[in-house]
Protein 1
Amino acid sequence: MKRWMKWAVPLVAVLALGGFVARAIKMKKQDEAAAVGAPAAPVLELSAADVMVLRPLELTRTLTVSGGLKAVNSAVVKAKVAAEIKSLTVREGDSVKAGQVIGQLDTTEYDWRLKQAEQSAASARAQLDIAKRALENNRALVAQGFISSTGLETSVSNEAAAQATWQSAAAATEIARKSRADSVLVAPISGVISQRLAQPGERVGVDVKIVEVVDLSRIELEAAVAPEDVGGVVVGQTARLSVDGLAEPSSATVARINPSTQSGTRAVLVYLALKPQPGLRQGLFARGTIELARKSALVVPVAAVRIDQAQPYVLAVQNGKVALRSVGLGLRGEAVLDGRVDSMVELTSGAQAGDTVLRGTAGAVRDGTVVKLPSGAAPAVASAASAAPPKP
């Protein structure tokens, strides 16, 4: 009996130790499986272009305008008399000077009318001379008592009638001479031919358009502004315009404001004078902004403000995580960020200077997402030193 106990005790000890070891191994495997089943939260790495630090900027309040370009000075050469076009020496794109002869109408009819008027005037002049001599003779006869004063009065009346007839004939001669001179087509202003509306050989009536001349040295943008916005526009304000076909933006100044509204739309026409620039043409479409006012404010790019909820918000980075912050919005305008003019909006509440927020380039990011800020490059900082947009 003692001999059996001698072998049983070590065996039980070995079995107990094996059980403990097996249990420890099982628990370790369970922990490892749990660790594999619950992966670590993903970290979103941000670039320097995805974040910015809020700081006060000089916000430029602007008004968006658009419209077609129009030459300040333009003229249409019309036929002043009805005749056949004998010659027309200019076409679209040709440059002309003020007073330059650009065409000729057929003058055959007006040459004969002028001769007719001249002959009528000569006849009236001869009749006037006869009436004057008769009046002088009758005055001498009255003085000698050979005729009565009644005969003298008749001579005076005849002389006055002859005088009026001659003056009328002379006026008709001048009208005929002017009609003949009007057959010459002359450029009224210096510029470029934009339209040729008639051809040699055609017979045109009075006031029929023949060519149009535009002066490209002065170009304006004719923009329609809503009644609620026109109150902030004054003469002398500057603007930056993007013109179709031109790579570089154009500078402009508010030159005039129409005192009346347009019927139907009630919009007010505002005229912006563009600085001379190669490539400007009448009729090109332009769009841009008028600078209304400037103020220093805490701003953020318009694209950084999210509006998919009831209240607008921005995504701020706080303690390594994204935090949703509802913000109040103020004025909209433009400011310089990273050396470029960008559309900005004022933050009136919900954020303060020094906060790091995500820009629109970061895309859709959930609240609470763990993020990693760029290490090699500082986030975009809207510094006050670079806040003022360049003036046009």
Protein 2
Amino acid sequence: MATKGKKYNEIRELVDPKKSYTVDEAIKLIEETKSAKFDETVEVSVKLGIDPRHANQQIRAGLVLPHGIGKDITVLVFAKGEKEKEAQNAGADYVGLEDLIDKISKENWLDFDVSIATPDVMSTVAKLGKVLGPRGLMPTPKVGTVTFDIEQAVKEAKAGKIEVKNDKGGVVHAPIGKVSFGSDKLRDNFLVFMESLTKMKPTSSKGTFVRKITLANTMGPGVKVDFVNVREVLKGFQVAA
């Protein structure tokens, strides 16, 4: 059985696994528990009071965080005609249709983070469903990646738009930035995420929606966040300039 290293154990002692911390305490601990030489990603995990077996209780939406997620996003656009030019002008990395579909299907080429498509080409793009779907790369109206407003979609993707989606256990996982962002930007991103998530509660979901919140950096332990404090902080929350 593998054991954790001495450094991890020292960091782990900084976090009380039985305690739920305030927003500011949790963000501070995320910075204090950084241990890797690379810039660690900060991720939030939220256990929701939903039944993922029911389609009307699924959570899936796109969200742009105020300070991005600290990653260069490679964007592919499936389009034709004038929309190809619009995508290129907006800064898409790859633009096309049949040529890109062939490259993906025949070469298993997947060197992009987000794919966007106009509605009129989705019947053609649909043939990639078995390849892109399991990898979360298939364009979908639910997160705004099937749209005629290509310019806006590309800009949002480049800004680090994230997909908010529950897993089979009713948990949502999402990156909210890098440790190097500092406490103010991480706090902003976390609060915008939580504010947006709470508004996604399905009408068919009864009882407590947010059951448990955990923050963690790539190499560190999970830090529980007190949702009561989150709600209090959100009452007077404004994104820092």
Protein 3
Amino acid sequence: MGIPKRLTEKQMKFAQLLVHSEGEKTPTECAVEAGYDKGSASVRASELRNPKIYPLVVKYAGDLREEVHKKYAIDFDRHISKLARIRDKALDSKAWSAAVNAEVARGKAAGLYIEQKIIRTGKLEDMTQQELESKMQQIIDDHSVILQGIPVKQIKKEMKKKRLKRPLSKLPKQLPHQ
């Protein structure tokens, strides 16, 4: 039989639908819309995407994908100029917030802004004795109302006695006065 040298109208329409509605339509739906019979559309869609059976259709679909990719590809110059146009239209419309956001986005793309987030998680095991005592003092100071006015020195004394064998939640409600 041999490989045909040209694409049919149905084959071209199938490839165009396949590329331009990727993610929106299944290959079977594209085959039906291109004019193939509903009963055999699934088989036809599979065959049309097989390079051994229909190499011209596969090549045409690949060329279309490449064309679409080039058209919508993001490169630095295009991105910056598009943001500038958005900013200018926003300024013309007196949409100040949108204009500022577009300008900030341009600055980020150009590397003028650096977002930095530092997330620290501290474990008690990683703290020094001095850091632990400082943290305990801060907790005591921050929650002195809850501790019912017990003097800090007395709490420290009691904590040293217990050698931190019990967590703070296990301390008695009222410490003995000495």
Protein 4
Amino acid sequence: MSKFAETFFNWPIMVQYLPKIVEGFFVTIQLALAVVVTGIACGLVLAVVRSFRVRAVNFFIVVFVDAFRALPPLVVIILFYFALPTIGIRMTGFVSTWLALSLVLAAYAEEIFWAGLLAVPKGQWEAARSIGLDTLQTLRYVALPQAVRITIPPLTNRTIAITKNTALGAVVAVGEILYQAQGAYSFSYNPSPLTLGAIAYLILFLPVVWFGRWVETRFAWKR
């Protein structure tokens, strides 16, 4: 047991590298918030545009959604960071990770919002139009409020899953938790910094999971 503690919970090493883990903790928060805001906003916009049922536009939306749902987030990050510079587009590791994860979340969010819009009874669309509401007004006052409420549980779960992928930023030298923990492990030759990183992820994402559960309970339709 003492050997295990010395290997994975070496207190002097953990104290030495704690500032680096804290630094990565705040970078992870910034990246996760940027991904959530951008991804959900873009997904909602795409779903609304798709609801106008313009065939040519919807074709490109479907292609975008299918492509980014099919590609692993790590592959997208690598493409943005390593492939785009070959055509003159250069991005930092942070921007590459933010953009990649935002697009992946947007693809999933669009499908979730679109499913929510389809779940709104057709009769409510027709009733709204019959009292003089145009398409945008019907979306704003009738369809979207119901669709958003329906989509909260799956959207919350998908958002949490995507934000945990911020750890993939370590591959392109984003100074988030995992990157800092790996660097500390390389210098100390002891996995205790990785344990510290795991604790940091728990501190960060457990409240997010609990908040997601509360949101589902608070806003989901009562059965």
